[in-house]
């Protein structure tokens, strides 16, 4: 079957069933499918609006095509967001990952270079001295040693390179933004996902339920920010015991100052690396508060914190004690040692 037939269906504003989307996704990853046909399909899906079944099916196929990452049995979390909000905020979830890992949360962070942002997680990690050329064994060893690892999407999804070319040609968010956080090759028990579609928060939690997460939190902030924002109402959904509960959250209710999304804008990867390191040294700013809030939700999603309030206390202690900065330094040191071994 040709992907053009699926595109035609979608253009008629008809959603694909889970099984049909499995077939379409396999064609997307087929090297023989012309890139322009893939682009047309992705654009058509975006214009129609992706459904839970379409997203879950694409995630299933993409993960099936991923490289195996043989981590020890354990409870792992990812806090990767969808991106695509166009707000160019600094790397909040990457910073929060160090805060979480410094407090005994096992983090398998899935990330990519910038596609629709100024600095993707892989870009800022590179600027910090954490390279993206880990082998699978390197990534697993880092996770064992430090309780955190970074899985660069192109390293674990070899078929993504071609898709990346298509996405860059399209130049705006597609279903792959929605699917990215769902395709971590590590089997996650829990997850925190920021998405750029506030109206889709509960539906995204349903995708996570379909994919077998035991517990998860989905959040969308002001202006569709794919993180919890400090200004206005955040929309969230908690997946727990197979049930989904929607709720809202306002940063001011947790003693944090309300500032606009514009106060969280970052810059180049190098500029964001400076923000990140200063923040982990305890420098107070809206960046600091944003990381506190998002790390707090991460602790709550993982089950380490019984409430967001408790999570904020844990996040603040992780930073102000110096543990989060030490965790960053340990990962940088590990990364640099790998490079030195390869030079020998």
TrEMBL record:
It is an enzyme of class 2 (transferase). This is Anthranilate phosphoribosyltransferase. It comes from Lysinibacillus telephonicus. It catalyses: N-(5-phospho-beta-D-ribosyl)anthranilate + diphosphate = 5-phospho-alpha-D-ribose 1-diphosphate + anthranilate. GO terms for molecular function: anthranilate phosphoribosyltransferase activity; magnesium ion binding. It comes from the Bacteria. Pathway: Amino-acid biosynthesis; L-tryptophan biosynthesis; L-tryptophan from chorismate: step 2/5. The keyword Glycosyltransferase applies. Binds 2 magnesium ions per monomer. Residues 75-325 form the Glycosyl transferase family domain. Belongs to the anthranilate phosphoribosyltransferase family. In the C-terminal section; belongs to the anthranilate phosphoribosyltransferase family. Pfam families: Glycos_trans_3N, Glycos_transf_3. 5-phospho-alpha-D-ribose 1-diphosphate binds at residues 81, 84-85, 89, 91-94, 109-117, 121.
